[in-house]
Amino acid sequence: MKLEVINLDGGNAGTVDLGDEIFGLEPRADILHRVVRWQRNNAQAGTHKVKTRSETSYSTKKIYRQKGTGGARHGDRNAPIFRKGGIYKGPTPRSHGHELTKKFRKLGLCHALSAKAVAGELVIIDTADLAEAKTSALAKAVKNLGWKRALVIDGAQVNENFAKAARNIEGLDVLPSVGANVYDILKRDTLVLTKAGVEALEARLK
């Protein structure tokens, strides 16, 4: 697959060959769904906690005698049946994460990249380098290119000036190639790869 390469000013910078085994797959929603669910579950804090009857702050005294009242038998007011009593079988701190094989995670990333290529939402730029960390200059270039919600993936390291300039631009995110992941790719309208980013991703996924 061949795609045009552009500069940040919109000028043509040649073409690049993209491997069909990474960018030319037929995207499968079931694979993407499984990888995104794995990512989001691993990111979930799992710190939810309720108080059980041993942790609520009522007295542990039996509220009335066992027999002769005409009412049900009760112990103390910490029981789950009472208002502000302990919660029965409520959530406790735990991990929501689950396992997913490395091979499947790689496949999911290939399908995410292919999905952007098929939808025409993949842009290749020559480099993501700036001489100065000027947010206004980068914002103007992004507006001229028509990127509204874009993710820029660079090579092994992101240019420091570019990262600083992009920090205050709403809807623009920058990642090194090692941080490329299915969830971040799919939730943006435009995926922007540098030539170094393409090389790094192909080396990582082959």
In terms of topology, how is this protein built?
Blueprint: E1 2-6, E2 12-17, H1 20-23, H2 29-43, H3 102-118, E3 122-125, H4 135-145, E4 150-153, H5 160-166, E5 172-175, H6 182-186, E6 190-194, H7 195-205
Parallel strand pairs: 1-3, 3-6, 4-5, 4-6
Antiparallel strand pairs: 1-2
Helix pairs in contact: 2-3, 4-5
Brief account:
The protein is of the alpha/beta class. 34% of the residues lie in helices and 14% in strands.
Unreliable spans: none
**Terminal Cα span:** 16 Å
Q: Globular, elongated, flat, extended or rod-shaped: what is the shape? A: elongated
Q: Which fold name corresponds to the CATH topology of the largest domain? A: Ribosomal Protein L4, Chain: A
How much helicity do the residues have? 25-40%
Helix segment tally: 7
CATH superfamily of the largest domain: Ribosomal protein L4/L1
**Strand percent estimate:** 5-15%
Number of strands: 6
* pLDDT averaged over residues: 94
Q: What's the CATH class label of the largest domain?
A: Alpha Beta
Order of helices and strands: EEHHHEHEHEHEH
Radius of gyration: 27 Å
Biggest sheet features: 6 strands, mixed
The CATH architecture of the largest domain would be 3-Layer(aba) Sandwich
Structural class: alpha/beta
Describe the structure.
- Belongs to the universal ribosomal protein uL4 family.
- One of its GO terms (cellular component) is ribosome.
- This protein has 206 residues and is α/β, with parallel strands linked by helices.
- The protein has 2 domains: 154 residues, Ribosomal Protein L4, Chain: A (3-Layer(aba) Sandwich), CATH 3.40.1370.10; 41 residues, no CATH class.
- Helix content is 34%, strand content 14%.
- The protein has a 6-stranded mixed β-sheet.
- Strand 4, helix 5 and strand 5 form a beta-alpha-beta unit.
- Helix 2 packs across helix 3.
- The protein is elongated, with a radius of gyration of 27 Å.
